[in-house]
Write a structure and sequence with these properties.
Layout lengths: L1 E11 L4 E10 L2 E6 L8 E4 L4 E4 L1 E6 L12 H10 L2 E6 L10 H14 L3 E6 L13 H7 L3 E3 L8 H14 L2 E4 L4 H4 L4 E2 L2 H6 L3 E2 L1 H18 L2 E4 L5 H12 L4 E5 L1 H5 L21 H13 L4 E2 L8 H4 L16 H10 L6 H8 L1 H7 L14 E11 L18 E11 L2 E4 L1
Parallel strand pairs: 1-4, 1-5, 6-7, 7-8, 8-9, 9-10, 10-13, 11-12, 13-14, 14-15
Antiparallel strand pairs: 1-2, 2-3, 5-16, 16-17, 17-18
Helix pairs in contact: 2-3, 4-7, 7-8, 8-10
């Protein structure tokens, strides 16, 4: 089977490719980049006026399966991923049962192989049932197919437990992904601590709660030599901690999300539960620091922290509603509209942070259009204007703060292992 993506602008930051041409795919792998409109194949897709890039990689999604399939499942979550240009997603362990055993890792991989529209890599819990005390059998879950470990939604508070976990993972070459939160400072909090929270009468979550635990985890990475990845960075303080860690040569990487790059805590006004997330939306100064860090390479990856919830769960009092928003289907459009088109980020940088950057963080395959590589590709229409309509999402859930937003730039179609997925 020979597929030709004909006449598009091929942009592959990992290989420093930016040219018009035909991307030729044979038997699920990239065969060559030919001169524009010169290649022939069994199937030819006209990509003139479109951009052909490596399939996006999301290091941080919640597929909710097993246990919470009423919010999302692997089938619907990966369909949403494909619609957003993501050909690879890493699913977090706060499921029921928790992803803390080889059996659950294998269950997810088997399910994804059957119904998935994207590659799914499980992230296993660092402690059993994410309880923060007894360590998971990390070797077993890695051998079964997990690509990293994390207690994400229930961050480990005990420094001794975190140290022992990182020492263990350092011996295995495993990456520890950390949600950085001092829960003694955030207990009962609903949004960023600041003027908007005061006006709303909502309990606040201080930026220091993130910075303190990020500093601790970086210090433990220095002590143990463990590879550390900082999840969903939201504060200027954590940006500076990551920048210094990299300057010191520590094995530390970091990600942020489109919402932290484009929204502030003002989005919560009116008790908008679709703008409630953890870590919370912060201030304009934090947004500007995150944008700078993304552009200069301090932050390695854009992830979504796709966190679906049923409608009735979000339709509660602000303090009681769960944290989290969906993001797979809006991520590229948001970044392109509010960062690339406004000059805060070059398109080459945006594509790199969606592809080669996240691949590098966990050592994942993909993220490039190298000859011989598996053909995971996203085809983008940078000029397409569209309105975010949650009712049309492939995800089961609708909890987005971007409902009604006018965006420019969207995914035309994706290619997964040489198979075209029209979205």
């Amino acid at each position: 089977m020979r597929l030709v993506l004909q006449g598009g602008r091929i942009l592959d930051p990992a290989n420093h490719v930016d040219r018009e041409g035909d991307l030729v795919i044979e038997d699920g792998r990239i065969a060559e980049i030919a001169a524009a409109s010169s290649a022939t194949g069994d199937t030819v897709r006209d990509c003139r006026g479109l951009m052909v890039v490596p399939g996006f990689i999301d290091l941080h999604v919640h597929l909710r399966e097993p246990g919470f399939e009423y919010k999302e499942d692997i089938e619907t979550g990966t369909r949403a991923a494909a619609a957003g240009g993501f050909t690879t997603v890493c699913c977090m362990p706060n499921t029921r049962p928790t992803i803390d055993s080889a059996a659950v890792v294998r269950q997810i991989l088997e399910r994804a192989a059957t119904v998935g529209s994207a590659r799914v890599y499980p992230v296993a819990a660092l402690t059993r049932d994410m309880a923060g005390d007894q360590l998971t059998e990390v070797h077993d879950v890695l051998t079964a197919g997990a690509v990293a470990v994390s207690d994400d939604a229930v961050p480990i508070q005990n420094s001794e437990t975190m140290r022992r976990g990182m020492e263990y993972c350092a011996q295995l070459g495993a990456v520890v992904m950390t949600h950085n939160e001092d829960q003694a400072l955030t207990h009962g909090g609903a949004m960023n601590e600041g003027l908007t929270a005061t006006i709303m009468g909502a309990p606040g979550i201080p930026a220091a709660a993130e910075d303190i635990v990020a500093a601790r985890n970086i210090a433990l990475a220095r002590l143990t030599g463990c590879r550390l990845h900082l999840l969903h960075i939201s504060t200027a303080g954590t940006v500076e901690l990551l920048r210094r860690a990299k300057a010191d040569g520590l094995p530390v990487t970091g990600e942020t999300c489109p919402h932290y790059l484009t929204l502030t805590d003002a989005a919560c006004e009116g008790y908008n539960t679709n703008a409630k997330m953890n870590p919370p939306l912060r201030t304009l100064a934090d947004v500007e620091a995150l944008r700078t860090a993304l552009a200069d390479g301090t932050i390695d990856a854009i992830s979504t922290d796709h966190a679906p919830h049923a409608g009735y769960e979000k339709e509660q009092e602000f303090d009681r509603a769960p944290f989290g928003i969906v993001g797979l289907e809006t991520a590229f459009g948001v970044v392109h509209t509010f960062l690339v088109r406004r000059g805060a980020l070059a398109i080459e940088q945006a594509i790199e942070r969606f592809s080669a950057g996240p691949a590098r963080c966990l050592g994942l395959p993909g993220g490039a259009l190298s000859v011989g590589a598996t053909a995971d590709v996203a085809v983008l229409d940078l000029n397409a204007s569209w309105t975010v309509a949650p009712a049309s999402f492939r995800s089961k859930s609708r909890n987005t703060p971007y409902a009604g937003a006018e965006l420019t730039g969207r995914v035309a179609f994706t290619v997964l292992g040489g198979r075209v997925l029209d979205v």
